Amino acid sequence: MQNFIKQTFASLVGNILGLFIFFGLGTTGLLLLLFAASQNPGPVVKDKSMVVFDLSMKITDGEPSSSQLIQQVLSGEEQKQMSLRSILDAIEKARRDQRIVGIYLDATRISGSDNTAGFATFKEIRQALAKFRAAGKKVVAYGMDWGEREYYLSSVADTIVLNPLGAMEINGLSSQPMFLAGALQKYGIGVQVVRVGKFKGAVEPFVLDKLSPENRQQTQKLLDDVWTEWRNAVGYSRKITPAKLQAIADNQAFLQAEQAKSNGLVDKLGYFDQVVAALKQLTDSDKDDKTFRQISLSEYAQVPGKSLGTERNSKNKIAVVYAEGEIVDGQGSDGEIGGDSFARIFRKLRQQEDVKAIVLRINSPGGSATAAEVMQREVRLTREKKPVVVSMGDVAASGGYWIASDSNRIFAEPNTITGSIGVFGLLFNAQELANNNGITWDTVKTGRYADSQTLSRPKTPEELAIYQRSVNKIYNIFLDKVAQGRNIPEAKVAEIAQGRVWSGTAAKNIGLVDEIGGLDAAITYAAAQAKLGNDWKLEEYPKYGTLEERILGKVPEQTKAVLNLDEQKLQLPDPLAGELQKLKAELATLKKMNDPQGVYARLPFNLKIE
């Protein structure tokens, strides 16, 4: 207990002591909560139940962070975050479970939700739901206000019901990046750029007030590819031609309930009580019951799958390593991929004889070039001993592609964002800002470039040339690694690089991706490469362990999570809140730029498809 208090709570007292007091809990109270949770025998699944999938749930690649788990324990709220792997496993388990008759997609709370999953993530869930339907089970979706993203998933349902006062936004996809150059200039903050690649749009928000022609070109092509996949998938499920969906987007855009039904986008118009009544019939619930027989997806994920054949027991392991978030130098923290901590995991897995193959799941826009190189080296060394297969999520670009380039095989979804093979550096100075407020500097130095790191003035042409040589060198290293890892001539890599962003479909056509497929497809391929047949089980990394293990400090040191309670979200009316969140995301990205050389391989800043 002394070790527990010393090591775990020393750095947390300031952050969570207030919370404990507020909830009337001390350390003893928290431990009692943990003990009570550990004694829970698990959820009960009644016969003829519906699994309820709340589409407002936040979906991540890896497990929820420690801060989120602690908040759930303290608040007693139902889990509002799940990993993609847990969702896919739960849907497959429900497909085999004779007690489960269907899945209810609840889209009534999607407006303003924390679910930021992209189209590639929804593509994988969509395929799992289609497989569930093929087993003869029902998928029912109900909502009030559908946009393209959630409807992309919901359109796979047997029956889609829209509230009579609801609406649908089917107007195509857009991306609206925010440009900060005018504000920086207004406040006297200077920016100098060193880069390679004519498509390297990551620096544009700091030096331009609109998209460059090259960046506009690549963004348009990316949106076109993702939109084509959307129209094909939705059109196939709803028996609507892609041309008709395009006409709806161009001519109607915002459809009231009756319009959505007449265009075949939904099957029925109905209120929530009517949907509940229909689901009562499907589940043979008593008329007097308040609701239909159900279990939430997060609860159902906790149901043991051994009797359903979804739990494997084998000495052979396939490790799934999640690289999710910004790539940063060092250990990294919540929501980041630390180059050193990632390398440590791969070194450990390389030495474990029972780990027969590794699937590297990447969901990252890139970041520190130095960290990416540290990570890529470990991937290459590991590949020499056992198969390493990459599964790309919503985005695996720039530094995210760097670490993928030396794998045995790369899988991506059609709507994955990848490529962006290019590097850049941003050099800020506060000379004008300081001078305008009466602040000046003077310098004494022993070498010509001794003060080259200063923020007090812009870089000289000679200093910029030094930075440019460094950027050029790293860019050439990047090209060489892609050429060798992908077995593509360097001239061809140089042609398709230039910092350009590609969809998964386009990336496959030019050789940057091997196969179109999701995480399950990558795992199946890894098992085949390791010649395991069906004799294997999955093990996920980083290993966070249970909440009790995290609190009590029993998790291995290399993968301990930092307990850091999330700040409250700024509550402002839309659309102002959305734009302020964009600005916050841009500034947060700058905070994570910690490469020791100041050189980055990163996607155009916070590219968001809406």
Explain this structure.
Residues 132-283, 382-532 form the Peptidase S49 domain. This is Protease 4. The chain crosses the membrane at residues 12-37. By secondary structure, this protein is an alpha/beta fold. Among the domains are: 49-170 and 253-306, 2-enoyl-CoA Hydratase, Chain A, domain 1; 312-423 and 468-563, 2-enoyl-CoA Hydratase, Chain A, domain 1 (Alpha-Beta Complex), CATH 3.90.226.10. Helix content is 41%, strand content 20%. The chain is built from 24 helices and 23 strands. The strands form six sheets. Strands 11, 14, 16, 17, 18, 20, 21 and 22 form an eight-stranded mixed β-sheet that branches. Strand 16, helix 17 and strand 17 (409-412) form a beta-alpha-beta unit. Helix 6 (119-134) runs parallel beside helix 7 (148-154). The longest helix has 26 residues, at 213-238. It is globular, with a radius of gyration of 26 Å. The two termini are 49 Å apart. 41% of the residues are buried. Residues 1-25 and 552-574 have low confidence and may be disordered.
